[in-house]
Amino acid sequence: MAELFYAIFGLYLSGGILSLIFSRRQNVANALTGIFAVAASFAGILFALSVFANHATLDIPLITLFDFLPLHITVDTLGAFFILLISVISLAASVFAHDYVKPLMKEYNIGVLGFLYHTFVASMILVVSSGSAPLFLLAWELMSILSYFLVIYEYRRKDSLRAGLLYIVMTQISTVFLSAAFFLLYQATGSFQFADYHVLDGIPSVIKNAIFLLMFVGCGIKAGVVPFHIWLPVAHPAAPSHVSALMSGVMIKVALYGMARFMFDFLGGEGQSWWGVVVLAVGALSAILGVLYALMEHDLKRLLAYHSVENIGIILIGFGSALLFDSYGFHDLVAIGLVAGLFHVFNHGLFKSLLFLGVGAIQRATGVINIEELGGLVKKMPATAVLFLIGAMSISALPPFNGFISEWLTFQSLFANFAISSLVVKMVLALSVALFALTSALAISCFAKVFGIGFLALPRSDHARKAEEVSPLMLWAKSFLAILCVLFGVFPFLMFWFLGPVVKDLGLSFGSQVTAFSIIPNPATPTGLAPLAVAALLAAVMLGISFVLALRFGRHRKRESETWACGRLIDSRTEYTATSFTMPFELIFSSLYRPSKNIERETLGGSKYLVQQISYQEKIEPLFERYFYDPVKRLILNCGMWARNIQAGNINLYLAYIFVTLLGLLLFFR
Amino acid sequence: MFDLYRKIFKIGTVTLSSEKILGEAHDKDIEIIGGKLKNEIKRLFGRSLMIRQVSAGSCNACEIEINALQNPFYDIERFGVSIVASPRHADCLLITGPITRALKDAVLRTYEATPDPKIVIAAGDCAFDGGVYRGSYAVLDGVGSILPVDMYIRGCPPTPADLLGGILTALERTPRKRL
Questions:
Q1: Assembly ipTM
Q2: Which one in A88, A375, A576, B129 has a CA-CA gap of 20 to 30 Å to A450?
Q3: What is the domain extent for residue B118?
Q4: What is the pLDDT of residue B19?
Q5: Is there a contact between A564 and B87 if contact means CB atoms under 8 Å apart?
């Protein structure tokens, strides 16, 4: 097993270095990147499966130069679960990348991209397999910096560098918080080993609260929860699509791994009751705000980035309800919330990377990713359209796809929480359930917009008119993810093979009854779901309808013709646009969006009837940037300006500073 | 008040009896044509004939006559013929006017939108060869220049009886197997 583990890193590192060596010959570098990444992904999948099969924990003490900074690798089932996710997604992304990056060859160095890609994936695996705080922070930093380089990889595009700057600042702040959390843990236990963090009995609750908050903010920034979400819609569009798929599908999940590790492993069983409330509230807020901003966004990558915020919120709702069970003594039910959250982690990884790869395919086929300029793609790229539809239906939580199962489980865990008698908790729960339900509904309308406007009807621009289906390799990569989406939607018990051991290893009792045909999350209340029956019912209804239609209309001759518009010309200007589709939502939620509109008419000779050109502009106000980040930015800049007064640049002054400091220290440590 | 009573008694009943009208207005023809039409529609369609009327630059005279087909006097609905609002519902296109250049595309789209099999009838002299507009740069001189026409109904404008007769002849010429 350890050999397989070394093989993963060996393959990733050698693949990265080889692609760097061959970077002069771009095609060779590209092929090497693909082959080694696929091999490494298979090794990762095999390794994760072997951890589950043997039900063993891998423990490797790496060389330690100093006693107090041990670098220790520990892979338990929770880590293996995330390694499985990372490897599955990186397998698809690597295959997709081979043809996707080809147009980049003219401008950028593919060898460097391969190197960064390989080391980035390896660093994510290192984060989830680290067993000591120094290694965790080291890997976390590596992951942040490598992904920063990937964000600014297309550095000739003017917005890339700005996006990268925002991203690196946010991610460094996250590391600061996490480091502080780990130092508090070290102070409390005297150890950097994760294994020593399980027993935190003697620690005062103030320290525990501080650790929880520092960890929650640190991981929350990386995961992109509201109000730290602002880097997601900026950084994801800047990176190449297969990297966005990895960042959105996997990297922000690594932050959730950190949360799960802290919440249920280190601090497990001794949570304060308000932790769950906080996590639940932040989760519900992230979910609703994420989807509301996604609805207003017509740039596909930014839209998907906001949906990541939404889905991270949904996962946090699961985690939050698990924490509530934990702190109120319902120890049998903790597993439901955790399982719901982790299931959604995996599902979101699958369908979000599927959607990002779909957007990458659209980008390659048309050159644009704004929905308003697309349209009619279902005729030009039918396979891409079907695969995108599967992703869209999964993320909208429609049966029989995987998103439905995990969101259903999340709802169940919330409903089970109403057993808690505290009034505050009940109010937060009721609000969360309502917001979560609204989120699901809005997510469906958002993807109705994406698919309806982007893929159906007539092409809206020449870019979309000239679109052609992408290469089979890209389609295979996406089909793999789409098949997994359907597989875990119809046979979710497969996922419980992994989730069962994970929760048991965290010391939780797993009471849900899961068979091949049904899931009963809480045996005390016999609410169950039969995913296979749901899928069978849907299939039967669809077959029945098509059978009746065939029987009724099958014998008529068919002829295709234009849509009848009373003899008028039908073209793309007649169509519904994404802006008009979202107008009702903009009106309903106008207090949040605060939209500002600007209509300009160019008329002939000032007559209001002879309009030559109309331009319509619409902006929604970025609330968080304006009322949270801008003041903070101003404050920091002002502090900097003030601090500049000290730095006069005069050497005598600096000598005086040193003298004063020396005096002060002598007085203090007398 | 007395004036009013005097007027009522002096003028008497002004509505006409149906015999009197039928006697005066060649309507035996309408009844006969209508009866035949009903049988033809039964033979071809089983129930009824749906007509979509298209005006392609007509002077509106033909439309007035077509409208008359629907008034209580002619009342073609009793023979199973109705004029519908969309070519998607129609079995038959009734086109009037010389086909102006501006309306050519609209007529073609209407033809395209009508489900097969369909009957195309061109009503009026203009629809036949351009009529009084013949040779103008703005018209295409008749429906025949852009569409296959099954039946021309001459007349400027054709009377309702002509129209009904034309529709009947068009149906009579249509073999059952074409539909």
A1: 0.75
A2: A88
A3: 2-172
A4: 67
A5: yes
